[in-house]
Every structure is written in structure tokens, then in C-alpha cells.
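Pipeline run #58 for the internal structure catalog. This entry was flagged by the ingest filter as a single-chain record with no existing model, so it goes straight to prediction. Upstream metadata was stripped on purpose; only the residue string is passed forward. Reviewer on rotation: M.T. Logging verbosity set to normal.
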Amino acid sequence: MDSYEVSTLKKGLLILDILRQKHALTLTEIMEELSLNKTSVFRMLYTLEKMNYVNKYNKYYQLNPHIFRDEHLYWHQDIEWTSLVAPYQLARQEEITTYIGILEDCEMVIKNVIREPFEQPFFQAIDTRTPMHSSALGKVVLAHLPIETQHDMLNSIRLHPLTSKTFYDYGLLIPHLQVIKAQGYAVDNEETNLGKCCIAVPIYVNKEVIGAIALHGSTEQIKKATIRSFVKKLVEASKKLTAEIDYLLT
């Protein structure tokens, strides 16, 4: 080590740097990434948390987005969506691309995408749009809106076929949305892109649906027989997201 370096300060900065690179990590993961012992990492994290440089949610540590707010952070309704831990946990656990979509002015806007190696947001996809009537994200939000709002929104968007499997007839789409609401999840089985499948469940804030979380992959990754299993994982992630959001907004 250089004679002018301060060892303790350097370790703290290394922790901040690894959290910047990999977003949210447990104490054990930080130890392994930096080859530091448990006592040193615990003391560093404790100090950084006390000084509000780092937040801890459940067992995961992440940078405080109110301090480390830059062009890579995407805020919406006082929520910094790329900082929420639950989607990263889901993406790493299932090793499938994970999406967060939010309803904005009759459109589903992507607020986070986590794809392999499931450490950082895929920033190029953030703030892109996904079709309300064909994507799992859009359909599950439409299905859980109040009926009048749903009808107004359907009247304001153009239903057009993206593939041969797209629901673009109101007479077929509305009963389809009723089924989605009853089962609590939506599936986009090649309705938006051929060869791709997506499963989504709603996200609520104050008991109001504001968006959805989804798993997206090839039809080989997400097969019909595995949908129910993925739905259970998505529902768990949605509950965790709600708890995180409630914590941040209180």
C-alpha cells in the first residue's frame, strides 16, 4: 500500500464503489467481492449506514439514492425504481430478465430492466414504452384498473396486431382482461414478439395499481408448465416491492 493511503478510508470507498457497480449486495457478497474479512466489512457498513451513505433493506446494502443521485437514477412519483432491491433478488434467483413498468398517461413506461449478469439496470431500455394491449405488463395493469378507467383507457389507445397472436379486438380483449384480473397475473405468449414470453403481476401503492413487475424470456425459458411457479415468485417480489415503497414513502 502507498505510504500516503489511509487503509480504513480506502476500504470504505471500495465498498461504495462495489455498490455503485453491482447495485445491491449482502454483507457476505461484499466480503467475497473485496476479499475483506467479516469484521472489517461489518464496521465499514455500519459506519456508512449511520452516515446515510448506505441504506440497508432486509439483508441487502445499497447506496442511498438521495445522495448518489445522478444520470443513472430514474425517479418517478418520489420512487427511484432502479434502486429497489426486490427486482434484483428475483432476477438473480430466476436468472431471467426482469422488468418494472409504470402506468403514465395511458402508456406503460419501463422504469427498470435487469438482465444477465443481473447486477445493473439495462439503462438503454429505461423510459421506453411497451404496448398496453399486448404486453403482460400492460394487460395486467389494464385488468386491475377500475372499470370506468379501464374503458376510458381502451378507448384512448389503438389496438393493432403486433403478431398473429395479439388480442386486438375489443370483443376478445375485454373478456381476456377479466380472466387476468381473476387469476391475478397476465401472460404475453408471443403477442408482442414472436419467440418471447412474459409474465407480469401488478404493483400497488396505497392499494392502487400503478404498474407491474414481470419476467421476460424466450419461449424455451418460460414454458407453459412453469408459468404457475414463476407467478408465485413474482407475487412474492411484488409484495416485497410494496413493502420497500411503503418504507421509502413514509
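catalog note: Helices lie at 7-22, 27-34, 38-50, 86-94, 136-144, 147-156, 170-183, 227-249.
catalog note: The longest strand covers residues 208-218.
status: ready for reviewer M.T.
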